[in-house]
Design brief:
The protein is an all-alpha fold and 315 residues long. Strands 2-1-3 form a 3-stranded mixed beta sheet. The protein has 12 helices and 3 strands. It is globular and about 65 Å long. The protein has one domain: Rhodopsin 7-helix transmembrane proteins (Rhopdopsin 7-helix transmembrane proteins, Up-down Bundle), CATH 1.20.1070. Pfam families: 7tm_4 (PF13853). One of its GO terms (cellular component) is plasma membrane. Its main location: membrane.
Amino acid sequence: MTAYQNVTVFIEVSDFLLNCFVRSPSWQRWLSLPLSLLFLVAMGANAILLITIRLEASLHEPLYYLLSLLSLLDIVLCLTVIPQVLAIFWFDLRPISFSACFLQMFIMNCFLAMESCTFMIMAYDRYIAICHPLRYPSIITEQFVVKAAIFILTRNVLFTVPIPILSARLYYCGNNVIENCICANMSVSRLSCDDVTINRLYQFAAGWTLLGSDLILIFLSYSLILRAVLRLKVQGAMAKAFSTCGSHFILILFFSTILLVFVLTHVGKKKISPDVPVMLNVLHHVIPAALNPIVYGVRTQEIRQGIQRLLQKGW
């Protein structure tokens, strides 16, 4: 009898359970309402922006096509994450299948990287518009947007598709409770009975390669823009340049600040509640999505006028 007491029995699991804010159940109550409002704002504002750009001929320009791509990415990210989280808050629907979990993991990693890449392309657009205005119509064309979209899709799919594949190939036994509201890569991988060193290394390398290179190029673009503006002696040139770049810079600030706070909370996770990184991870998928179209709609005169004309026509 004693010979069997030291034998560990591994049971292969067939699905996961999202353990969302169980340490702080009150968070679910006060977070569900603002999260719902942010989700509705994100979906409605991005839908209005897409319809406006689609129906207004004056907005059929490369910059607004890139903005449309950004709105599409935001909508997909919101639909991938927020309904799942709200279902947990309202109906305690915590189970998620293997296939749904790894699909969500792929979409989150891929589309966040695609959003970062889109910001980088938009920064290049602003650089050409301010530093080489005479060449802008010949460089930033519809063909450029098509090539940029293909690049954004290809680069980020190729780099992020190994993330769910590496996680799916692991052997999961016994514990199937994910300490998160969503299927984040390492939250899932650490449940396996296998070595996850490769998963950690690839997640780190892919994240810094994609997001890091985009941020460096964005910083370089704005550094060149700032240098060019400071050299101009024309009165009001700086104000006009900042007005042109202001909306885009604010969007990048929203995106990168939340991401930076999320990284810092992970670094100092021993000093804060484990639920804080989880909450920031969820909010990172909805706050930029809600603010992006509002910022562009408020600060861009052409979009404001387009929305007003559509409202007057009654669509």
